[in-house]
Amino acid sequence: MTFYLLAYNNFEFSSFRNLTIIPAERIDGFGNRDLLFIKKDAEAVKKGDKILFYNSYEAKSEILIEKVLASKEEHPNEITYLLESDRFLSSTYLIGKQDEICIIPYVGILVGFLSTRIAFFTFIIIPSAGLLILGIRELYYLKKGRR
């Protein structure tokens, strides 16, 4: 859970290299309780594919799904897509293809809850601090018993 929270990107979603993990409640068209694993492969996106991408046109941290009308390789590491809304999208903002989403049912609600501040503090920080204090206490009594 800590790793998930530390991997937040600018859009408040967790990304690990080319894998993005998103609670489905943040995207229209998916069950609110699911957790989505989406692999990014910009070169595999073809005309007619539906893709998920970060909305960079508005000052929101949301994910949209649109159909690709065309793609053009601008540089060796950069592809630009023409979307059905007549927007151009850089492969930097691409999350992945809709066909290649791995959905884990009912885990998204747990991740959504545990990523809140109060749950993180209650279930991660307090137990970790307790274990640290118990460890220090044990070391103290071990040292004290040897003398």
Oligomer status: single chain
Low-confidence stretches: none
The average pLDDT score comes to: 84
Radius of gyration (CA) equals 21 Å
How do the strands and helices of this protein lay out in sequence?
Elements: H1 2-6, E1 14-16, E2 19-23, E3 35-39, E4 50-54, E5 63-75, E6 78-83, E7 88-90, E8 94-97, E9 101-104, H2 107-114, H3 117-146
Antiparallel strand pairs: 1-2, 2-3, 3-9, 4-5, 4-8, 5-6, 6-7
How would you explain this protein's 3D organization?
The protein has 147 residues and is an alpha+beta fold. 29% of the residues lie in helices and 33% in strands. The protein contains three helices and nine strands, in the order αβββββββββαα. It has helices at 2-6, 107-114, 117-146, and strands at residues 14-16, 19-23, 35-39, 50-54, 63-75, 78-83, 88-90, 94-97, 101-104. The longest helix is centred in the last third of the chain and has 30 residues, at 117-146.
